[in-house]
Amino acid sequence: MSEELIPALVTRKIPFEFPDDLEPLWIPSNPELSAMMNGGSLVMPYLEPFLIRTMREAINQIDDEDLRAEAAGFMSQEGQHYRAHRRFNDLLKEKRYPELEDVEEQMVESYSALSKRSLATRMAYTAGFEAMTLGVTKWIIEERVKLFTGADSRVASFVLWHMVEETEHKRVAFDIYKALYPTGFKAYWIRMIGAFHGAIDVMKFSRRAYKVMLKKEGLWSQLKSRLRLASNITRFLTYVAPFMFRAAMPWHNPRSEKDPQWVTDWIAGYTSSDHEVAPLIDTSDPIM
Q1: What is the pLDDT of residues 123-175, one digit of tens each?
Q2: pLDDT tens for residues 263-280?
Q3: What is the pTM of this model?
Q4: 234-240: long-range contacts at Cβ-Cβ below 8 A with a sequence spacing of 24 or more?
């Protein structure tokens, strides 16, 4: 049994809408950041179904009903994520970037090949990705005013929802991995590699996607744009790298990573609100 049960994970079927008037570079003051986040979005309908398939296979080998319930909540949340991202990505491709289909084809091949690897490798990859998202969440939450002021509130709210739920199920993949492979150097070595493999794969495909978008916009060759992009990447890595390295340590446990207070407040606000309405943040409000 897991050492500490987490509250039942909520499947939030939030009706985020992405109408035709949505601007693909939805952060006007920082189009490079828009492209980076769009690139991350493009990966989700390929990554997250892979995580779900891996988790489903893993729990077939686990008898602990508590862990199985946590895994079911994980899979349900991830299912909502990738379906919402697919709707958003379809708009990006239809409105401006049909070239992104080339990157999608690369991801189909990559995740097909990865699906043939051992369950231990795939679960370590899953836990590694989840560790990275904690760093992404910390970055986005702590710098949300700087990042999202003046942005399209529909997309910013969508991004924040995803980050909240990644934090909420932050330890499920780790718990399942440890239940299957509790001890031994080999178990640690595979998990350590997974801490980087899952994160680097996502960053690799995201970069391919945002490069396509910035080239299409004529920004890739502009010095000012590349400097803004470099600044965004530096801030991203400043937050993410420590989480990745901690996740690679033998004593790592995601329970030790404190949740941002804003995440806790978001969950409490959702619980007390009308669930038929998407919880949109006000990106014109500097306190958000």
Answers
A1: 999 999 999 999 999 999 999 999 999 999 999 999 999 999 999 999 999 99
A2: 999 988 887 666 666 677
A3: 0.93
A4: 235/139, 235/143, 236/36, 236/136, 236/139, 238/139, 239/135, 239/136, 239/138, 239/139, 239/142, 240/132, 240/135, 240/136, 240/139, 240/199
